[in-house]
TrEMBL record:
Single Gene Ontology MF annotation: alpha-amylase activity
GO biological process, one term: oligosaccharide catabolic process
Domain Glycosyl hydrolase family 13 catalytic: 14-429
Name of the protein this chain belongs to: Alpha-glucosidase
Alphabetically ordered keywords of this record: Glycosidase, Hydrolase
Organism from which the protein derives: Arthrobacter jiangjiafuii
């Protein structure tokens, strides 16, 4: 008989170690801090923990710039503490997957240092080195090999005077891109992955994995309106050899292993058609990918920094498209936030008057879809955007780069602050709020980034014991998934696609059928006539209310059969 993969009813929790729990008092979260709070996660009911990078790193991008892939960064802990964490996770019946950042390394990685040392060294082609554009002298302004901009602002090329060439970095200059055309690069990555799996981890979250294959000629891209640099995406998003590289990786790393692993790819810019290719089990690539369409719904024409409030109807359209596209082949991952995105309740809900209701409604929408849900730390207690009052509270290199660019464009500091408050990645990175003590119980020292001032009201201790507990609601959603094939595997059918406020759908597997009704607004909404009012399985209001009306941000799950 058909055996669905184990992760079809699993729930994953992302730990951003730096901001989770600090036991050493240096203001940076650490591995013993995770160990200390593992019961919080196992009580929540999650099956898998995904750790953002904890490898040795100069931390320009909080660990997404790795200088040694086989060492734990001292700020986070020791090798022994990592092995203890892994054992403690396993002892509680959970799994641990690690970030795999191999589109690029740190510029302090030994391979890059060697690569940069001369034009003729063996590692030179491990990265992308190019001379200046024709007609330019090396290092001359405008002489970059092509016109791509980096994702964090500025050119995607940095000039290296020592060898009079430029190296490519899709992200910051501290994150040079690895050249996957080199078999040596691929071999070394695969060896490193095997080394981690042999150490006992249960899989990987692969950072920017659909960027690893570039069009070899690295051609110029058309320049967008007003921009100085062009978007190189057409030459590196799902590039020519990406499927070949990933299949080769899976053969080299997983072919002879039979344990239960999980491999999820981060694939910004992926289309539904590409996602099917990446996740069709018969192709031997990834188990699931993170798509980004719903993360763009509040981007204006100028992109992420050009914030435009989202229309909830667009969210329905996107969800429906992805649910349908991966229903026969492939598998969805489901997320509303992570360390790169503002807080879900602040972005898609109402983080003020209806914080509990909208946080639990969003959780309902997410966890009742077909796919594997990912919870970002703090979401399970309804943590909100950072609420910073001053620009100097921002830490992320992307926020700081934006600050520089926006200042040069003459945008006022007030506007810049307002934009950062809305869209900056720092919003997700403020420390986990454990209790109402100093620094929310995150550290006894000075936190590397300020704690959200609302920690006195919003914290784990308060939430878990509150009458309206986001945490307990998540527990129930996770329980429901674990026990219901309609939730984990059922068909998805959107109801009332035209209604902008009502997000309603049915899930069906065999003779089990559930209906999910969500009022994505702060006003009461009539319940559609056709909806039979069967047994309520779970809802985010404690009393049944008027069966004909959904209250503000009300979510209900009914069992139809
Ligand atoms: O967060 C973004 C910009 O606002 C995304 O474009 C993000 O950079 C992209 O999804 C890739 O993210 C991953 O790789 C980056 C790292 O900074 C992110 O934290 C990571 O999730 C470079 O390693």
């Amino acid at each position: 008989p058909y055996q669905p993969a184990w992760w079809t009813n699993a729930v994953v929790y992302q730990v951003y170690t730096r901001s989770f729990a600090d036991t050493s008092g240096d203001g940076v979260g650490d591995l013993p801090g995770i160990i200390e709070h593992l019961d919080h996660l196992s009580e929540l009911g999650v099956d898998v923990i995904w750790l953002s990078p904890i490898h040795q790193s100069p931390q320009y991008d909080n660990g997404y710039d790795i200088s040694n892939y086989r060492r734990i960064d001292e700020r986070y802990g020791t090798e022994e503490e990592f092995d203890r964490l892994l054992a403690e996770v396993h002892r509680r019946g959970m799994k641990l997957i690690m970030d795999l950042v191999v589109n690029h390394t740190s510029d302090e990685h030994s391979a890059f240092v060697v690569s940069a040392s001369s034009r003729s060294n063996v590692s030179r082609d491990s990265y992308f080195w190019r001379g200046p554009r024709r007609g330019f002298a090396p290092g001359e302004p405008g002489g970059e090999p092509n016109n791509w901009g980096s994702i964090f602002g500025g050119s995607a090329w940095t000039y290296h005077p020592g060898t009079e060439q430029y190296y490519l970095h899709l992200f910051s200059p501290h994150q040079p891109d690895l050249n996957w055309e080199s078999t040596r690069v691929r071999q070394r990555v695969f060896e490193m992955m095997n080394w981690w799996l042999d150490r006992g981890i249960d899989g990987f979250r692969m950072d920017a994995i659909n960027f690893i294959s570039k069009r070899p000629s690295l051609p110029d891209s058309p320049v967008g309106a007003g921009g100085m640099f062009a978007n190189g995406a057409p030459s590196f998003v799902s590039g020519p050899r990406v499927h070949e590289f990933i299949q080769e990786m899976m053969r080299a790393v997983f072919a002879y292993r039979d344990a239960d692993y999980l491999v999820v790819g981060e694939t910004e810019g992926v289309t539904v058609d590409e996602a099917v290719l990446f996740t069709d089990p018969l192709r031997g690539e990834l188990d699931m990918v993170f798509q980004f369409e719903h993360m763009r719904l509040d981007h204006g024409p100028g992109g992420k920094w050009d914030y435009l409030p989202m229309d909830p109807a667009d969210l329905k359209t996107v969800v429906n498209r992805w649910q349908r596209a991966l229903s026969d082949r492939g598998w969805n991952s489901l997320y509303l936030g992570n360390h790169d995105q503002p807080r879900a309740v602040s972005r898609f809900g109402d983080d003020d008057k209806y914080r509990y209701e909208s946080a639990t409604l969003l959780a309902t929408l997410q966890h009742m879809q077909r796919g594997t849900p990912f919870i970002y730390q703090g979401e399970e207690i309804g943590m909100t955007n950072a609420g910073f009052a001053s620009l100097d509270q921002y830490r992320d290199l992307e926020s700081l780069a934006y600050y520089g660019i926006a200042t040069r464009r003459g945008i006022s500091p007030e506007r810049i602050l307002a934009t950062l408050n809305q869209v900056s990645r720092d919003n997700a990175r403020t420390p986990m709020q454990w209790d109402d003590g100093p620094n929310g119980g995150f550290t006894t020292g000075t936190p590397w980034i300020d704690v959200n001032p609302n920690y006195r009201d919003i914290n784990v201790q308060a939430d878990r014991t509150a009458e309206k507990s986001v945490f307990r609601y998540y527990q129930q959603l996770i329980n429901l998934r674990h026990g219901s094939k309609a939730v984990s595997l059922g068909d998805f059918e959107l109801m009332d696609p035209g209604d902008p406020k009502l997000f309603a759908f049915r899930r069906r597997f065999g003779d089990e059928e559930l209906a999910v009704l969500c009022n994505v607004s702060g006003e009461p909404l009539p319940v559609p006539q056709y909806e039979p009012r069967h047994r309520l399985v779970l809802g985010n209001y404690s009393d049944p209310g008027d069966p004909e009306m959904l209250r503000p941000w009300e979510a209900r799950i009914h069992r139809l059969s």
